[in-house]
Amino acid sequence: MSPLMPDGRAHPASLHPLIRVLSLMVLAAALPTMSLTAVATVAVLLLSTYCVLARASLMRLLHGLQRLRWLFLALWVLYLGFTPGEPLLPQLPGLSREGLLEGSRRALILFDLLTAVYLLLAMTSVPQLIQALRLGTRPLRPLGFNGDRLALRLALAMEGVGHAERELARVRTQRHGALEAAAAMVVALEARADTLVGAVRLPAETRPPLWQWLLPLSLAPLLVWTP
Length: 227
Known about the structure:
Distance between the termini: 37 Å
Largest sheet: 2 strands, antiparallel
Number of strands: 2
Order of helices and strands: HHHHEEHHHHH
Helix content: 55-70%
């Protein structure tokens, strides 16, 4: 689904890209301080929102979670086995109840962060991300920071990654082995290295409506809230 109107302007009912990015940053900063119940609630809300607003890209989220499955397992085992506390079973004194809860909390924090990032990318186009980055870095311009240059590099990188994903999907349909598919993709990308991305036009800057600032402001108390 595209949040843009046919003429390229943001749809009036959609959130400004800068508001989306700031809300993600506030949530990411608040998650480590939340309790297990809170991060589990956030996980349910994020996943429900994803299914409603970005159902078409749900498989992309599942693939992202699958890539990090060993990290999830490592977090859970690390806290389960090395956190002192009440043993889960008398026969397993090294595995504590506190470790199980803390490992689950840390794994859910990672799940929440990954889901929030994928939701942002699913609902925000590259030009909109550029716009958010340019507006967000505007206060740094008097210090000599060039936000336009950083935004352009982000656009080129994301367009290149998107092309690589499409190329890999194409060669997978033509090759049976994973190694053959990877080799074919590398050859194809090298052959088209100079034409992977075209010229990127930076979008015009638009300010978010004042009422939309209420969303990141409403999330700000989570930074100091403790259960």
